[in-house]
Fold this protein.
Amino acid sequence: MSRLPAISRALVWLRRDLRWHDHAALHLALTHSQAVYLAFVFDTDILAPLPRRDRRVSFIRDSLARLDATLAERGRAHGHAGVRLIVRHGRPREHIPALAEALGVQAVFASHDDEPSAQARDATVRQRLGARQVAWHTVKDHLVFERAELLTRAGTPYTVYTPYARAWRAQLAPEDWAERATDPHAAALAAPPPELLYPGPTGMPTLAELGFQPPADGPQAALPEPGEAGAQAALQDFLRRHLERYHATRDTPCLDSTSRLGVHLRFGTVSVRALLRQALARLPGAAAAADQAASGPATWLSELIWRDFFAQVMAHFPHAIGGAFRPEYDAIAWEQGAQAEAHLAAWREGRTGYPLVDAALRQLASSGFMHNRLRMVAASFLVKDLGIDWRRGEAHFAEQLDDFDLSANNGNWQWAASTGCDAQPWFRIFNPVLQSRKFDPDGCFIRHWLPELAHLPSAALHDLRLLSPLERATLPAGYPAEPIVAHDAARERTLARYGAVRRPGA
Ligand SMILES: Cc1cc2nc3c(=O)[nH]c(=O)nc-3n(C[C@H](O)[C@H](O)[C@H](O)COP(=O)(O)OP(=O)(O)OC[C@H]3O[C@@H](n4cnc5c(N)ncnc54)[C@H](O)[C@@H]3O)c2cc1C
């Protein structure tokens, strides 16, 4: 890639890399081209199925507005007035080739995106650019290691996390976290012809023009601060207050001590290399020696490795999108019918009678976030207590999570459902009452997200069966007086359900 010919004009097509700093595709374009334009397309194929109050559309739009301001400022600093982000609304397979032609570029640069639908989109764009003699250059940006960069000795993809993480740490070298600098090369930024900008004062479609409404309002509903500034604020807060103790506090939802950088990693308002530099700077000794659990930074690093792990699983095993990684589990007889639908609705709305599960789903509905421990508890509950197909829970998270990421969501749902690679064993079934007692012992998280139950004593808050008749009478209308399923009986049904399809010895 570094042996690219000199290019007079290039277009960088942004997708899930909405930032200026430490940007691999932008770095490559700026260092090889005399004039660089940037474009983003609000992709109607992606937007069409989303809820009309989707929080992420607002986040993207606000992040782009900030990036646009950064580009204009960097351009001005080099005497180039009118540097702007070109924004389009429609299908990239039409807009990107058309823009390449209108700008007269010789090359389009983009970051890799290994989601199956993105691969299909990019193949069409590449082919259409090729027909116009426009080169297509893509580069790794979103991950530390991707695709086939880490393989087992036998040359096969890793399907177990621990050896993958060991290989990841062993292979990590300074080049993997080096900044792909853009500031020193900003002189190559070019102002697009004004007629190519989105019409209107902001150069950007309004939410209404995109077909969306502002996200629901409310005290708990604030969107994460967008753009690079938002990512930096979250990062600095996490470094200052939580990273050192992350290993000890990350499983306690009420402490809210995780980084909240998921949404920024998803949309690329921060570079994963920048996060890696921060984690490594706080690790004693070589990165290779930084084994799991030992410290906050090492534990956090291992979470970033999980992210790479699931991304390479998706790249190698695309059949796991939409079906079980272990196909034998596609034969599981999930609950169907009116009662299953009612249970699914109760789960989504936080009315299962297991207050920790309900508080988690309320957190998701209000804030677009759910704590990792609770994602595990909520997923396990849906699949192994309610017997509902994991794909229905996966789809709900995909719709609701600000930080929704196809490979991480799919990988983790399949982990919880025991259908994935390196998954939770099928016979391990979280007990929602014990999880509640262990991870929210004084009911702090439950009381916050289910204030209508806040008056109950902690013991009963974890287990509604312990309510006295007097306390039971104080439950609010609409909240179940007892759990919608009994865990012990559900557990037996789940063992039978999985046992029926399991291969001998699996
Ligand atoms: C059922 C289920 C669904 C999930 N869906 C998603 C999803 O759609 N998108 C997503 O980014 N994460 C998902 N996760 C993983 C994890 O819950 C979130 O990444 C994390 O809670 C985000 O909060 P944070 O940014 O504060 O994370 P931190 O704890 O600060 O971790 C830092 C980063 O590491 C990565 N990471 C952490 N844990 C995991 C993990 N288990 N798998 C992959 N990457 C991880 C994320 O990018 C995260 O932002 C899911 C987990 C479960 C159990």
About this structure: The chain has three domains: 1-141, 143-179+226-316, 327-498.
